[in-house]
Design a protein that fits this description.
alpha/beta; 8 helices; 12 strands; about 270 residues; two-stranded antiparallel ribbon; 8-stranded mixed sheet; globular; single chain
């Protein structure tokens, strides 16, 4: 019997057309054209499905999913891989819904779940477009669930200082897991599985700040998840059993509430992340 996890997150792109401060996927720094190799991602998902069962759902995320020009065909392949065993969910920030409405409707009718994460307040220009696109979904009677994230308070998994980022270096992995864990679900990224978004994508962030050799991160970069291809069966079983338990590398995140109001950072700070 295969080991099991509740939820799998898989990116279709790093690129994003928003820049939400504290984004758990570090997409606030990724240029919209920060694409990924979708052929390799499909191979990774097939191998994952061979080795690990997903009991609840798989989420297809970005960045912004609809920025990927081949998002629809990719989602079709994902649905074909997983539809007999788990739900397939895809996310959007709503800005490009009107340009993709027919394909969105097709995938929802087929059985995929649509989530709209509203990151812009309705009084802004982009917020007005999202409001209009939500109305379009309603007018077309396309089922979806919206989360009004611009009202949320998000913590920051890193400390930002002088255009660099640093770990919180908390004293308690249990408290960090409790207060600082922003996205604790399994991440499948470039052939490897990670326990959370921060560990999966922090290297991308550090590349943009030239900090891969920074001593401040040396301890935490020793954790590099598991290869979905090369990990032993025992390693995968242990991974799944301990998915939601605190680990030593949790201390890179805050061990106290550090939430701040959601805001949009400058789009001019974005980098190419692939």
């Amino acid at each position: 019997m295969k080991p099991s996890i509740d939820v799998l997150n898989s990116k279709i792109t790093n690129g994003c057309n928003l820049s939400c401060a504290g984004c758990s996927h570090h997409s606030q720094i990724a240029l919209p054209n920060s694409s990924l190799n979708l052929e390799n991602t499909i191979k990774d998902l097939k191998k994952f499905n061979e080795r690990i069962h997903i009991s609840d759902h798989i989420s297809i995320l970005g960045g912004e999913v609809l920025l990927e020009k081949n998002w629809s065909s990719f989602l079709t392949e994902v649905f074909d891989i997983f539809n007999s065993s788990t739900k397939v969910r895809f996310y959007t920030n709503g800005l490009l819904v009107h340009k993709n409405i027919d394909d969105i409707e097709m995938h929802v009718k087929k059985g995929c779940e649509l989530r709209v994460s509203v990151h812009e307040a309705p009084h802004t220009k982009r917020g007005q477009l999202v409001t209009k696109n939500i109305k379009l979904l309603n007018d077309r009677k396309i089922p979806f669930i919206a989360s009004v994230n611009y009202l949320d308070f998000w913590g920051n998994a890193v400390i930002e200082k002088d255009n660099k980022v640093y770990p919180h270096n908390s004293s308690s992995m249990e408290e960090s897991k409790k207060w600082g864990c922003l996205c604790p679900n399994t991440q499948l990224y470039k052939g490897r599985i990670y326990k959370c978004a921060q560990t999966a994508y922090i290297k991308d962030r550090l590349k943009t700040t030239n900090q891969l050799a920074d001593p401040a991160w040396n301890k935490y970069l020793k954790y590099d998840g598991l290869s979905i291809y090369d990990a032993s069966d025992k390693e995968l079983v242990d991974f799944c059993k301990t998915q939601y338990q605190p680990s030593w590398f949790c201390t890179q995140c805050s061990d106290v509430p550090n939430a701040i109001p959601r805001k949009q950072e400058s789009l001019s700070n974005k980098k190419l992340i692939q």
